[in-house]
Amino acid sequence: MATRTGAPRPANSGTQGKICQFKLVLLGESAVGKSSLVLRFVKGQFHEYQESTIGAAFLTQTVCLQDTTVKFEIWDTAGQERYHSLAPMYYRGAQAAIVVYDITNQDTFARAKTWVKELQRQASPNIVIALAGNKADLSNKRMVEHDDAVSYAEENGLLFMETSAKTAMHVNDIFLAIAEKLPKNEAGASANRQSAGVGLTATDNREGSGKSCCGSN
């Protein structure tokens, strides 16, 4: 279990290192905060009212690890049940996944376990799976105990952190932990010799309609 703290950091100017590109998918019930986590990670922003994701949104962001720059191609999937059948389109071929639940909602934790089972059964054999207990800023309304999530993560070989898209708690950390665990010499990762910094420019093809409560999707 990773407990690393820190934030995506730019590479030192003049540093030459390889760039590894990985596909990452976010899965979880509607309104657990998937889109809010991605928005915080990619743009450093949080919106109290976040548009619901339709189908999936695509964004990119990079983090730097010593001499390696990891570029994430992020697919933020919709949490509504009617979009569940589309999920395999997005996690197929993904090297990493973040399964998100809301610490104030026990049902979303049960749903997260279902997503983990599906990934273990149908996704790439070596996929790195992280479990994110989001909305940690609402710990006074907690319904999912931290220790229960830790035990589940350890039993299933998952990275685990509690996060808050609102306060930015552990948002960068969980992406960094995934980046560190991914094999940098994987055939699917592109390695180009060039200097790179944190990619605070993002590709965002998000579509949405309607407003939902704080930290939706």
Short description:
Pfam families: Ras. The protein has 217 residues and is an alpha/beta fold. The protein has a single domain, classed as Rossmann fold (3-Layer(aba) Sandwich), CATH 3.40.50.
Tell me the layout of helices and strands:
Layout: E1 18-28, H1 34-43, E2 50-53, E3 56-65, E4 68-77, H2 87-91, E5 96-102, H3 106-122, E6 128-134, H4 146-156, E7 159-162, H5 171-181, E8 208-212
Parallel strand pairs: 1-4, 1-5, 5-6, 6-7
Antiparallel strand pairs: 2-8, 3-4
What does this structure look like?
The chain is an alpha/beta fold and about 220 residues long. The chain has one domain: Rossmann fold (3-Layer(aba) Sandwich), CATH 3.40.50.300. Helix content is about 25%, strand content about 25%. The protein contains five helices and eight strands, in the order βαβββαβαβαβαβ. The protein has helices spanning about 35-45, 85-90, 105-120, 145-155, 170-180, and strands at about 20-30, 50-55, 55-65, 70-75, 95-100, 130-135, 160, 210. The strands form two sheets. The chain has a six-stranded mixed beta sheet, sandwiched between helices. A two-stranded antiparallel ribbon has the order 2-8. The protein starts with 17 loop residues before the first strand and ends in a 5-residue tail after the last strand. The model is unreliable at about 1-5, about 10-15 and about 190-215 (pLDDT under 50). It is an enzyme of class 3 (hydrolase). GO terms for molecular function: G protein activity; GTP binding; GTPase activity. Pfam families: Ras.
